[in-house]
Amino acid sequence: MASPRKIRVAVLISGRGSNMVALIEAAKDPAYPAEIVLVLSNRPDAAGLGRAAEAGIPARAVDHRAFPDRASFDAALDAELRAADVDLVCLAGFMRIFTPAFVAGWAGRMLNIHPSLLPLFKGTHTHAQALEAGVRLHGCTVHFVVPELDAGPIVAQAAIPVREGDDPDSLADRVIVQERRLYPAVLAMVAGGRARLEGDRVVIADTAPEGVLFSV
Ligand code: GRF
User: Fold this and answer.
1) d(CA 169, CA 94)
2) Domains of the chain, with CATH numbers?
3) How far apart are CA 133 and CA 114, in angstroms?
4) Cα 196 to ligand 1 centre (Å)
């Protein structure tokens, strides 16, 4: 029997791309339900572009500074994604805000990873925000993208304890480890049909056991 067609994924980055590398590594498994077919960056100097190319993935910059406005930049990205026959977009440290029209075109087919337990601590400096608020649990979230920044249906989260003496850098160092575990696991859930968007909620096919990092 022919194996089912893999979900074609583009990863959008702006920086070092360590989440992107985690997705590329996971997708090397023949049983993984997705393949990374394209990496795009809005910054030509993003270190992740070189790491993607080393892994044999087509990797290109679409420099946002070359476009007069957000709409024309988004249209160029959209054209790249459609030319590559992409099914699903994963934002991984992509630091540009999209127009509502671009988001609408990928509704239900675009994921983002955010370094906090949403809906807490949207935007930037999330680790400093967590310390300022005095929370004892911090972490990361993978969610479907909606026009509102760092909102949208949550697929899964991973948590870490906040320890005495933590500073934003020590939290970032421990959260990123969880990000690199969570994102490939979530992409497998979504691409494999185990996590489905129903309206504004994500429905998970299997029940998570108590006490694991992934929750729904
Ligand atoms: C991650 O913490 C991600 O959650 C945030 O930006 C960082 C990107 O890191 N949005 P990397 O480029 O994947 O290494």
Assistant:
1) 20
2) 1-106 (3.40.50.170), 113-216 (3.40.50.170)
3) 17
4) 24
Q: Count of CB atoms within 10 A of residue 58's CB? A: 14
Token output for 96? 């540009």
Cis ω for the linkage preceding 184 (within 30 of 0): no
What is the C-alpha to C-alpha distance for residues 190 and 185, in angstroms, rounded to an integer? 9
pLDDT in tens, 102-114: 999 999 999 999 9
- Tell me the C-alpha distance between 171 and 82, whole Å: 37
pTM: 0.94
- The pLDDT tens digits for 135-193 are 999 999 999 999 999 999 999 999 999 999 999 999 999 999 999 999 999 999 999 99
Ligand 1 site residues (CB inside 6 A) read 13, 15-20, 48, 92-93, 113-115, 176, 179
